[in-house]
Amino acid sequence: MWKTILRRFLIMIPEVIILSILVFLLAKAMPGDPFTGSINPKADPAQIHHLMKINGLYDPWYQQYWNWVVHLFHGNLGNSYQYQEPVTRLIGSRAANTLWLALFTMILTYVFALPMGVYAGRHEGKLPDTVIRVYTYVTYCIPFFVILVIGIWIFGYVLGWFPTTGSISSDATGWLHTLGSRFYHILLPGLLGALFGTVNIVQYLRSEVIDSKHSDYVRTARSKGVPSKDIYRHHIFRNSLLPIAAFAGYSITGLLNGSIFTETVFSYPGMGLLFVNSISYRDYTVITALVLIYGILNLIGTLLSDIILSIVDPRIRIQ
Amino acid sequence: METASNFLNIKDVSTAFKIDGQYYDAISHINLQVQHDEILAIVGESGCGKSTLATTIMGLHDPAETKISGEVDFEGTDLLKLDESGYNQFRGAKIGMIFQDPLSALNPLKRIEDQISEVMDYHTDLSAEDKHKRVIELLNQVGIVNPQRTAKQFPHELSGGMRQRVIIAIAIACKPDLIIADEPTTALDVTIQAQILDVLRDIQKENHAGIILITHDLGVVAETADEVAVMYAGQIVEQGSVEQVFNTPEHPYTRSLLRSMPQRDNENDDLYVIQGNVPSLQKMPATGDRFAPRIPWVPAEEHEEHPTMHEVAPGHEVRCTCYKHFQFPDEQGSVTA
């Protein structure tokens, strides 16, 4: 199994290199240059030309790319034009917020989705199954940001149960209070994210359970005299979880992409909100860095999926 | 002492499946007996209800979708009256089943050892160590060359023949009195088929089990079985010992089946083809001989309106009266000439 993981990890290296080249070239292709307007609107073009030259902006692209990569490894992604501070520090302060929200949403999603999917599959065609299916269809039909807006309106505004902006209240003091306040702020976005995230998993798991239920190996187990509840526990559940496990890594990336919506609607200071703001302010250095980070996180997500799958499915393992 | 009496008595068993809210008989009024040390073969085309009979005996049908009537008397217990947990006392312990498709009948995520010892988990008090010993013993018995290694493997690492051996090992793990083998050799190539049948026979000798062997391969029947029941469209049309059925086949269906088998001494290369198909469940005629449409040259008055079994020799029974003057079209020509 370690061989599988190592091999899968090695495949990721060229992927990351190709991704970084693409991101770099896209950044280069964007209009404008880093100096026009940033020093002084009336600056002498010759002076800007000189600055471009000493900063290597007239070098061939591969050399510029190489310099960029060297800086990257030193943790230097340049300065944000909008905030006038290093991109690394800017992202670093928001990455944790996004991570907490994503993690919380993911846990909630699986806590809701697994029992619902298994229950619906097991009691196929009965009333609870129908209720769960209607829930998934309806939720699936509504765009995610509409769910968020409706959620905020009902629970944040009309009922006033939850805060609607930020990641922490300004008057939070002491670690316990701070932690509580942070948790209170991610509760509603997390719940709404999970509400939306469960849909795919429930549908998938439900049909997997139904498939396994009618499979030949379950019939074999029944012919062994295994009681129904043990058949679910030992045969159906684990086998149905395979595609869900495979999906888990991808769902992490899905959550990060979803965080762009959630954070914008909730004005939650994370990477997603930063991304949207940076785009509206044409903050190229931040956008480039975030695209690269999101890209790498996507690759890590697929890597995780493959690793999880190789753990749970013996057929994937390389001998 | 257990005598050679019938320990399995299937009396008037019908199984109906629900299709679009209505029940249709897949097998109707089946009567069969099985003794210890006996192999009863059930033969017939695909779709004639052989596997339905097997799964009915095993109680593997969803009660919400099927209606089963009659009696399956197994050592004095009517299996059809048992609930799920009552049935589980028999399944795996006293009745073992071997399935048709060894590729899908094993759980892909469990090691062979776990899949075999699972039966013993529910029917024996053996310790983990004893179970392991028994697994190795079983794998040896079904002819697996390196049992220690195979026990640790997953199904996808085994060949089709090996998987079928594993399935047999599961079926016999608790030394059942009855083994139902549903086309155990269909998915395997011919050389492996013979080995698997040998394994089955050896096990039977050891355990004195009765075997119901379901197959459409008449060669397998002639080679292994003691008794034969020929099924057509959910009914038994002919029943008797292997010698009776193969040497003096009476029912047109049995004769057609035997005729469509390749013969070494057959001078022409064409095989006999039975016209038409087995009727689907919804189109099953309510009265008359169900095989009549496939022998259209036989006049209607030769058939009974409600065909019953007629004894033609001790222990040899045939359904309907049409067998009496039955001839194939080419035979008719030679008779009149």
Describe the structure in brief.
The complex is a heterodimer of chains A (319) and B (337). Chain A is mostly helical and 319 residues long.
- The secondary structure category of chain A is mainly alpha
Count of helical stretches of chain B: 11
The fraction of residues in strands of chain B falls at 15-25%
Query: How far apart, in Å, are the first and last alpha carbons of chain A?
Result: 8 Å
Order of strands across the widest beta sheet of chain B?
6-7-8-3-9-10-12-11
The helix content of chain A, as a percent range, equals over 70%
> What does the overall shape of chain B look like?
globular
* Overall SS class of chain B: alpha/beta
Describe this structure in words.
- The complex is a heterodimer of chains A (319) and B (337).
- Chain A is mainly α and 319 residues long.
- Chain A is 76% helix and 0% strand.
- Chain A has helices spanning 2-29, 45-54, 61-73, 87-122, 127-141, 144-158, 175-213, 216-223, 228-266, 271-280, 284-312.
- In chain A, helix 1 (2-29) runs antiparallel to helix 11, helix 7 (175-213) packs across helix 9 (228-266) and helix 10 runs antiparallel to helix 11.
- Chain A starts with a helix and ends in a 7-residue tail after the last helix.
- The model of chain A has no long low-confidence stretch (mean pLDDT 83).
- With 337 residues, chain B is of the alpha/beta class.
- In chain B, the strands form 2 sheets. Chain B has an 8-stranded mixed sheet with strand order 6-7-8-3-9-10-12-11, with helices on both faces.
- The chains are: A mainly alpha (319), B alpha/beta (337).
- The interface between A and B is medium-sized, with 22 and 31 residues.
